[in-house]
Amino acid sequence: MPYDPRPVSQGGNRGIDEKFSRKAPEEGKFRVVSVDTFDGSDMVEGDFPSLEEAKIYMKENTEGREMLLMYIFDDQGRSVGRGGTF
Question: I want to staple 42 with a disulfide (CB 3.0 to 4.6 A). Which of 35, 47, 61, 62 is the partner?
Answer without folding.
Answer: 35
